[in-house]
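Morning run. Coffee first, then this:
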Amino acid sequence: MKTQYKSNQKVQTSAIALLNLFFFFSASDKAVAQNNAGILGIDHVGINVPDLNQAIPFFSDVLGFTPVTQLGPIPLDANWKEANHINPNTGAVTIKMINAGTGASIEVFSYADNKGSKAHPNSDDIGASHIAFYTSDINESVKYLKSKGVKILGEPFLTPSGDTAGESWVYFETPWGSKMELVSYPDGKGYEKSNPKTVLWSPKNSSVKKTSDKDFDVKRNTEIIENHLKIWNEKDETKRTSLLNQFYASDVEMVDRHFIARGQKEISKFIVELQQKNPDFRFSAKSLETNHNIVRLYWQFGSKAKPAVVSGMDLFVIENGKVQKLYVFVDGKK
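And here it is:
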């Protein structure tokens, strides 16, 4: 019996060792593949248009993008056309690269005397694609595009549940018939509420956001934090919403040790819950320090009789004149 136990134990140990080796080499292979590919992200999206003189004004005058570089017209030899599945009778190509704001650039191709298909692929055709542009206010963007004569394909749809809950989207057509999209989720998407390990990139959360000169103004930043306290003490929803719009970014993020609130609505909801649990309590400042566009506020929360039932420190990141990030540190109850 003892011999059998040792034998079974040896088999189990060997199996675990083999399993560990499998995971080790699988992870190593993946790491090697990533390192060898050296891919960091999407540089640009390429699309074909029938006429640059029609497409470029649409991208620049209507969507507000900036054409930057141009190549061509470039004659294409027979070997290139064959390798890239281009009709042998199609002419030279001209390429325009467009800066599309925060995100990938758009590379626009136009072929002279194009002998390729003039029909757009249907939405369910293999190879059909579209570009989606993020907007902080989809209804205003739709209103604007309509004023420019752009065809909107339906009305914005708000996803009610699931991973993309909170996302609004709608398709529109370019003057040459390509389908593109507007998308908006100022308060985040449903899947983000579970604090996943990996979060989808979004232009609204881009790290390339830049501060303005006023973000380093001590007087202005002090005013913002004073109004932050007013926001957290305000019980009138209309007044609180107005203050939030003035002093918090639409995609503001509040990071607490127990949760993360994204967007003004989530933060406002938390404030209401806090006020309902503590109807006689108010926030007040103990001290405030500024360093460029970073502000540190030491606060207390309590009643008139006991104003410091809870104390803590908030760290603010100010961008473009509004609170972009808020990190909350709570000392605890006294």
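The radius of gyration is 28 Å. Good start to the day.
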